[in-house]
Amino acid sequence: MANVFKSFGYLFLTLCLFLGYSDTADAAKKKVPKRPKFVGATKCDGSCHDPYYQAWKNSPHGKAFDLLKAGNAADAKKRDGLDPEKDYTADPACLFCHTTGYRQRGGFIPPGTKFKGRDVSTRIDPTEPNLEQVGCEMCHSVAGGSQFRVVMKNTKGDFKKAETEKYGLRWDYKNVCNRCHGHKQNPHKGEKVDLEAALANVHPFAKFITEDNADQNIVKDGKVKDRAKEKGPSEEKGIVIENWKIHKGKLRFLKGGRAFNYKKGKIYYK
Questions:
Q1: What is the rounded distance in angstroms from the CA atom of residue 20 to the CA atom of residue 14?
Q2: Are 93 and 82 in contact (CB under 8 A)?
Q3: For residue 221, what pLDDT is reported?
Q4: What's the rounded Cα separation, in Å, for the pair 164 and 157?
Q5: What per-residue string of b and e applies to 115-152 under the rule 16 or more CB within 10 Å gives b?
Q6: Distance between CA atoms of 116 and 36, rounded to whole angstroms?
Q7: According to the model, what pLDDT value does residue 130 have?
Q8: How far, in whole angstroms, is CA 150 from its chain's centroid?
Q9: Considering 84, 88, 226, 243, which has the largest number of Cβ atoms within 10 A of its Cβ?
Q10: How far is CA 72 from each of CA 63, 184, 202, rounded to the nearest angstrom?
Q11: Max alpha carbon distance in the chain (Å)?
């Protein structure tokens, strides 16, 4: 009888250890937020994409907000009928394409914006560009990266394109440049984007790989190469370009003007 109890004791202990391990494993996985929002390029940096962040912050996209300041890009402004001496850093017609997530959840809030007497504008740090430039989420998402960055962490980068699209990641890179460069509200008419040249300019990450961030080289881990063989839904069709107008000094999305519908925690592209 003693041996029977002893056997049951071992079985119970094994079961407890197994359940405890399962709970720990589940606890290690972060919960995906219920709604998407923009989080900024510095969140993408951290312990995940530092070489890419370093490459980006020295690129034209990493300095896009600065072009809105008086005196900058004077020739381009003159050519297209803009005042080169005017400060456009609070102009809603410019902010959608010169910042990240403007007028959307978690996105950029221009300088001087107050709510109930409190300054709620986005903090700007020239040494660590974030929402105030054209960051990762403007090209890689439709509604911000709060959800899919958790999916990436939980899967350790081993995910399918279609799965991440449910959380707002986009793969239509040949179309995404038109989100701004080809937009009908773009005052710089006739702009054409050479995608391959643009990507080389924005993502020359190899020169920023160091001993400290070498483990973040997502090209070297092989998963990127495998995913290149897949076709995500957005890649097949191309996501709708946002349609908006300026009304009473504010940017308003027109009816049906967003690129997605949102239902029960998932994103559905139009």
A1: 10
A2: no
A3: 64
A4: 11
A5: eeeeeeebeeeeeebbbbbbbbbbbbbbbbbbbbbbbb
A6: 25
A7: 97
A8: 12
A9: 88
A10: 11, 23, 20
A11: 95
Identify which of 40, 217, 224, 35 has the alpha carbon closest to the alpha carbon of residue 125.
Answer: 40
Residue 124 token pair: 């700007």
Decide if pLDDT at 7 tops 50: no
pLDDT bucket at 17, cuts 50 / 70 / 90: very low
Please give the model's pTM, rounded to 2 decimal places. Answer: 0.84
Instruction: Render pLDDT for 129-172 as a digit per residue (tens, 0 to 9).
Output: 999 999 999 999 999 999 999 999 998 888 889 989 999 999 99
Alpha-carbon distance 60 to 201, whole Å? 8
- Type of residue at 145: G
pLDDT above 80 (res 34): yes
Q: What is the mean pLDDT of residues 222-231?
A: 76
Rg (CA), the chain: 23
